[in-house]
Amino acid sequence: MTPPLMTPPLMTPRPVRFLLNGRRVDITPDHADVTLLNWLRQDAQLTGSKEGCAEGDCGACSVLVARRQPDGRVTHDAANACILLLPMLDGMAVTTVEHVAGPKGELHPVQQAMVDHHGSQCGFCTPGFILSLLAGWRSGLAWQRPEIEDLIAGNLCRCTGYGPIITAAESLAAATPPEWELARIAAEYDFLEGHHAQRQAHGLLTSDHGQSFYAPDNLDDLADAIAASPDAQIIAGATDIGLWITKQHRHLPAFISVMAVEELNRIDEDDAGFTIGAGVSHHHAQQALREHFPQLDELWRRFGSRQVRATGTVCGNLANGSPIGDLAPAFLALGAELTLRHGASSRRLPLDAFFLGYMDNALAAGEFVQAVHLPKLDDRTRFRAIKISRRFDQDISAVMGAFALRHDNGVITEARVGFGGMAATPARASACEAALIGHAINSAPTERILTALDGDFTPISDVRASAGYRRAIARNLLIKALTDDAVSLAGAGVHSLGLEGITA
Ligand SMILES: Cc1cc2nc3c(=O)[nH]c(=O)nc-3n(C[C@H](O)[C@H](O)[C@H](O)COP(=O)(O)OP(=O)(O)OC[C@H]3O[C@@H](n4cnc5c(N)ncnc54)[C@H](O)[C@@H]3O)c2cc1C
Ligand code: FES
Ligand code: FES
Question: What domains sit in the chain, N to C, each tagged with a CATH number?
Fold first, then answer.
């Protein structure tokens, strides 16, 4: 039976409007949770984007999404169409593989490079690679190897192999944009600006068949809507929720999106730290914070793929409360706080009071995460965040350890240690933290400290790691965090102290 339509207050229904391959689309889809990929392939008959995994892993469905940022810049990112919901595209410009070549069929430089360097064999993955390369092209990538590897880490190819694809990408450093592409970019810009100007006068909505999707464009309306419809599904980048739909086949009757509120799409900086709004993506945060937190830059490099980081949000990663979410341990160690909003009132909560139990958090009904605050590091605090996963790229953690150690005269005076993968929630290692006080900053932990760490957690065995492995890894991460600087000063290899000595 179709559930009743849940209409949040303040919602004025209108179709979803976006630019698809240069043409404006106004559509009220049959279902609010239809994925962009299914709509493209089944309704729009654009079958160039492929479905490989339907869970954001393989990149075969990649499309290019251009979006106007609050400061007026337009960003161009590859995104996984299989886990994007169609209503999320409102006000954006989408390019699929059918619209990469020129108006007379001229190959785009990224396509020509793939041809010239034999970058494709079976072609199932190729549309996705083309769109990822196009995203790099439109974003002004320098086409150096590390950047290229990061750019295509979310695209799987099992036939060609990555060598020719990387060579093709490297060749793009010398290519120039064709006139027709510049005209397309200008037309996209006009659409994004026009929509933005008009959007301030309207709210957003698409709804049909008993489902609703509401994307208020200001914070007060968002807070009122969530408070008035506490059962509606709060949605941000949908890199978790998309899988509930494609893999778990959950039926969600009502969505309220945080993404259209401009003030939530910002990172504000003051002397104390950074305030990251609920709509800020991982990619945005990675770029904005890499100078102050180079260790987070490296962590984000290991977080999902460019597609996932372009869409998924920092606050979504904290709000979902996964015990193996990557940001929570690092943010716990850094002393992050949340602003939680309910209607007109808000409260501030330390992140370590937020996680209550397995996938359970301190949000009251009708409340949401408005922002996360990260204090700045001072020059006496050493911060390390280390992720252990089975693969380097695109893999969720088995264990994640983060350490913020303040020291004076060579001795630790304050310690904050966060772990993921060791308990039902991301958690601090409080006994270990206490044992670290007074310990020399650049010397390996004593057995007393390691035993304290053992006592902080009772990890479980699952498909990612056994309990014994997790315990051993946690010890090794602590050793690495304490000895990294000492080892590099001594000129020895960091790895000699990093992951050896695992007894599990
Ligand atoms: C291929 C792939 C790879 C991934 N790799 C990693 C990885 O390496 N490390 C990792 O940690 N995660 C990973 N993830 C998980 C996911 O990307 C992150 O958890 C992401 O940050 C979730 O953010 P989102 O904006 O997409 O959340 P959504 O999917 O929109 O929402 C997730 C949950 O958070 C809630 N929520 C979102 N925003 C708010 C808010 N402001 N207030 C209250 N509740 C809110 C939603 O209601 C929902 O319950 C991966 C996912 C995929 C598909
Ligand atoms: S189909 Fe695999 S990432 Fe979308
Ligand atoms: S050419 Fe990429 S999977 Fe075959």
Answer: 16-98+181-257 (3.10.20.30), 107-177 (1.10.150.120), 381-498 (3.30.390.50)
